[in-house]
Amino acid sequence: QSALTQPASVSGSPGQSITISCTGTNSDIGIYHYVSWYQQHPGKAPKLMIYDVTYRPSGVSNRFSGSKSDNTASLTISGLQVEDEADYYCASYRRSTTVVFGGGTKLTVL
Amino acid sequence: EVQLLESGGGLVQPGGSLRLSCVASGFTFSNYAMNWVRQTPGKGLEWVSGISGGGDDTYHADFVRGRFTISRDNSKNTLYLQMNSLRAEDTAVYFCAEDLSIGLTGYFHNWGQGALVTVSS
Predict the structure, then answer these.
(1) How far is B106 from chain A (nearest CA, A)?
(2) Residues ≥6 apart with Cβ < 8 Å to A14
(3) pLDDT the model gives residue B104
(4) What is the C-alpha to C-alpha distance for residues B24 and A67, in angstroms, rounded to an integer?
(5) B45–A100 CB contact, under 8 Å
(6) Side-chain half-sphere of A48: how many Cα atoms within 13 Å?
């Protein structure tokens, strides 16, 4: 069982918006602003998409946005594109200087 | 262009040891913390270990503490993971990942292609 809880799968049509949730506890997401999101295509290494809950690294499309409320972080992808189909993982800093990941969400673009 | 190239993976028996290496290029290696993150089909991504840019501070996940040791040689732009007392559940693809800062932030900006470690008799 993963430390952070994500839905196993979400789907959407091109042009639509989707949101992926990531639920943690008062030991991680609830008390720290250190949440990140990663995109992983099959056979590839993960790619950092969001850090510090809402910030995008250079080169990441502004169609990707992050937010947080209480113990739950969210990744929203607007204007879905076929190439967005991938696995998405959230991660958070946790007490005792560790990093924990979610179990991953498979995004299908119909 | 940032490049991270892992090596040293392979098949090892339970209880055995293995050392992974990750050679970095395309950035000032000593200016960034580095990490090892592993991935299994069943458990997804797991952060394993992290080390500050200067190598003074190291951190390990509870499930490897006492068995794995992270280190770096900034003169060789190389990151290491010494893995001892390996168990079947350590079977995974191990990625080295560049942090966003000289200290550990837990944000993995650039990743290698991964090295497969299989622990089996």
Answers:
(1) 6
(2) A80, A81, A82, A109, A110
(3) 84
(4) 32
(5) no
(6) 25
Residue A68 contacts residue A22 (beta carbons within 8 Å): no
Whether residue A1 has pLDDT greater than 90: no
Q: Which residue of A has its CA nearest to B109?
A: A48
Name the one residue in this structure whose structure tokens are 């270990």.
Answer: B49
CB contact, 8 Å: B50 with chain A? Answer: yes
Smallest Cβ–Cβ distance between B107 and the set A36, A101, A104 belongs to A36
- Report the pLDDT value the prediction gives residue B105, as an integer from 0 to 100: 85
Cβ contacts (< 8 Å) between A104 and chain B: which residues?
A: 44-45
Min Cα–Cα distance to chain A from B75, Å: 26
Structure tokens at B23: 């050679």
pLDDT in tens, A27-85: 899 998 899 999 999 999 999 999 999 999 999 999 999 999 999 999 999 999 999 99
- H or E, element range at A35: strand A35-40
